[in-house]
Amino acid sequence: MSQPHPALSPRQRFLQERQRRQNMTFAVTIVIMLVLALLSALILTGIVSAPFGNSFSKAEKFATSGKVPCPPEKALPVDPASVKVQVLNTTSRQGIASDATEMLTAAGFAPAEPGNYSTEYAGTVEIDTGIAGVVDAYTVARFFPNSKVVLTDATDKSVTVLLGTFYDGALSADEIQQILKSTDALTAPAQCLPLSDDDLELIANGGQLGAQSGQSGQSGETPESGAPEEAATEESAS
């Protein structure tokens, strides 16, 4: 016959109840931590999407003035004769803008007279244009290796080519013909920013919205800054 349990004193009952509550608290805490750890692992591996912050983490940045825009997806080069382009020499090297202009002429463009710019661009080639001229600019960029297209505030489709410190010179006749024979879509450079839907619509409409709002008459911008206000109409040593 088992011995009856001795009656607990009030203090013993208090300590026993406190221990029971502590054990329950620890158990619940451990379960919650395990669930959170499992959920975090699922979110990090992409199996489960986060229930909050999606709009912030997925916010897409679009190209603005001074940035490198991506060409529209699957966009093809335009007819060179339709492109309004001018070449400016930003360096002290003589004749390079004239040579580049002659190269564009040989490729079917009808460029404006070459010119000089007072501030040297410390790069290879920068090609400036407004939103409406992005496809035109990338069409021109094919003839300037290692060039980059930079978006400006221009409202027309004019394209300005800024020859910089590391410009290597005009392409050969064979290289020009090879580019002209290519039927590939325009290539988006690394780190370019996409255009917004409104910008893409403007391009699809042939830049008509920009034309209606008035043409600025500026041929481009200084490297990632403002318009080349001091550009000469003719190259001094062509």
Descriptive report:
This protein is α/β, with parallel strands linked by helices and 238 residues long. It has a domain of 126 residues: 2-Layer Sandwich (Alpha-Beta Plaits). It has seven helices and five strands. The chain has a five-stranded mixed β-sheet, covered by helices on one side. It starts with 9 loop residues before the first helix and ends in a 26-residue tail after the last helix. Keywords: Membrane, Transmembrane, Transmembrane helix.
**Share in helix:** 25-40%
Helix run count:
7
Looking across the biggest beta sheet, what order are the strands in? Answer: 2-1-5-3-4
CATH topology of the domain at 78-203: Alpha-Beta Plaits
Beta-strand segment tally: 5
H/E element sequence: HHEHEEHEEHHH
Give the CATH architecture of the domain at 78-203: 2-Layer Sandwich
Quick one: overall form? rod-shaped
- Sheet with the most strands? 5 strands, mixed
CA-based gyration radius = 32 Å
Mean pLDDT rating = 85
**Highest-level CATH class of the domain at 78-203:** Alpha Beta
End-to-end Cα distance: 119 Å
- Fraction in beta strands: 5-15%
Spans of at least 5 consecutive residues whose pLDDT stays below 50 are 209-222
Class by alpha and beta content: alpha/beta
Pfam families: LytR_C
Biased composition (Low complexity): 210-230
Region (Disordered): 205-238
Keywords: Membrane, Transmembrane, Transmembrane helix
